[in-house]
Write a structure and sequence with these properties.
420 residues; alpha+beta; MutS, DNA mismatch repair protein, domain I; Alpha-Beta Plaits; 14 helices; 12 strands; globular; DNA-binding
DNA sequence: TCTGGGGTCCTAGGACCC
DNA sequence: TCTGGGGTCCTAGGACCC
């Protein structure tokens, strides 16, 4: 059996933790730059605020309904996530952290356990130790555990936040209930295709001909079908090193000048390089892209990317940002207003396996320099030491008008309790 | 005025090899 | 008139996830 534990409205629940007066209030959390809604409490969902809603378009609705609005506080969410995962790891030696708010547990050798009870223990311990409410779905495959979890979340009263799908009768009933577009792994395009051949429910999907699925949804779709039939084809994924590392941002204003964009791109490259050094790798290529504001159809649009093969593998901020800047020079076109840019690094090899090339190699002195930079930035705050081509005077800031304190990760932000 | 960010996997098709 | 066959590797683009 597999269990899927998913935190309920995770970011909204985190914001509530140290603000108990917000329990049962409508809460939304906004994306970077306070752009759009990325999390909603149940009360906010009930008002009809959709996922991804543009914040400025919903301002009036927020006000009218007394919705509490928060800027994304990833320091808080990341730390709370770690705590939840710590608790979950007690329940099985085989765990996959699937996302910031979800984990699969593999329950091998748990035959004698009462799964219903086991699920309730998980719920109980997580809420008691972290304050975060979760839903637990237990079934014979990962895809079915996802379905079970959805039922637990949808019917918290009846299920008491735990749903165990342990018979075929329950499986079929659940699949008949689940709309095809709500299946894990079926997105908008696939749902459209399936609807076009009159497939409406997850159960219908399990009846579709294998060849059709393979042709239209590829091998991934076929695995999914089998998993939903109770034939386990998806196993826990091991933690691996990342295959790409990206830093991309939308800007609060439109940039017109090359040097403005260059500063951003260099900084993005520096962030990427930092993350790369943390996983002890070097990269062999990078991609730079720029984009005008796609929502402003009244303005001329331009977007372009370039992939650069590096002459040698490196994880030096100086070198990576130099190549990123060269790439930008190549794709930049004057006369447009740029709203977004990004740097993505890829083709990693472990630092220890870097082969020297005949003609040009990463500057060996950078290794020590980067080590010193990383150490200083770790001890004295991120971005204390920057490259000269980065923004030195002005700390580039994104819009975060409703940021909550970093209750659990910053000493000054710890709550004060008054005891009478 | 204002619309997120960071990932994974798969496939088709082109370039190349002998 | 007429032009092979069997591969591998790489990349761009599309689909999905949270």
């Amino acid at each position: 059996m597999f269990a899927l534990i998913d935190c309920n409205n995770f970011y909204a629940s985190c914001e509530r933790l140290f603000r108990p007066e917000l329990v049962s209030q409508a809460i939304v959390v906004l994306s970077n730059n306070d752009g759009c809604v990325i999390a909603r409490s149940n009360e906010a969902k009930a008002i009809g605020i959709p996922m991804g809603a543009a914040a400025f378009e919903y301002d009036a609705i927020f006000k009218k309904n007394n919705v509490y609005v928060f800027s994304a506080n990833f320091a808080l969410y990341g730390d709370m996530s770690k705590r939840v995962m710590d608790v979950l790891s007690d329940f099985s030696p085989d765990m996959e952290i699937y996302s910031i708010d979800e984990a699969f547990l593999k329950l091998k050798g748990y035959d004698r356990y009462n799964m219903e009870e086991f699920g309730k223990q998980i719920y109980q311990k997580v809420i008691q130790w972290t304050g975060i409410p979760v839903s637990v779905g237990i079934a014979s495959t990962k895809a079915l555990a996802k379905v079970a979890n959805r039922i637990a979340k949808k019917y918290p009263q009846q299920t008491k936040n735990v749903f165990v799908m342990d018979t075929d009768v329950k499986r079929i009933k659940a699949l008949r209930w689940l709309k095809v577009e709500d299946i894990w792994g079926i997105g908008r395009q696939h749902a459209k295709k399936l609807n076009s051949i009159n497939i409406k429910t997850a159960y219908d999907f399990t009846q579709v001909d294998n060849a059709w699925i393979k042709k239209n949804l590829a091998i991934v779709g076929l695995r999914l079908k089998l998993d939903l039939m109770g034939i386990a084809t998806l196993d826990l994924e091991q933690i691996r090193e990342k295959k790409i590392i990206a830093t991309t941002r939308s800007f609060d204003i439109n940039y017109k000048e090359f040097h403005e964009l260059e500063e951003r791109v260099v900084s993005f490259a520096v962030y990427c390089a930092e993350k790369l050094r943390k996983q002890n790798s070097c990269c062999n290529s990078l991609l730079v892209y720029i984009h005008s504001n796609r929502y402003r159809q009244d303005l001329p649009q331009y977007s372009r990317s370039i992939t650069i093969k590096l002459p040698y593998p490196t994880n030096s901020s100086i070198e990576i940002s130099k190549f990123a800047s060269q790439g930008l020079k190549y794709i930049f076109k004057a006369g447009y207003q740029y709203k977004k840019a990004g740097v993505i690094i890829m083709d990693f090899i472990p630092k220890s396996e870097v082969q020297l090339t005949f003609f040009e190699n990463s500057n060996p002195r950078h290794v020590l320099l980067m080590k010193a930079m990383d150490k200083l930035n770790t001890n004295f705050g991120q971005q204390k030491i920057k490259l000269g081509s980065q923004d030195i005077k002005r700390v580039w800031k994104m819009k975060q008008e409703k940021l909550s304190p970093r209750y659990t990760t910053k000493l000054n932000d710890i709550i004060t309790i008054h005891v009478n």
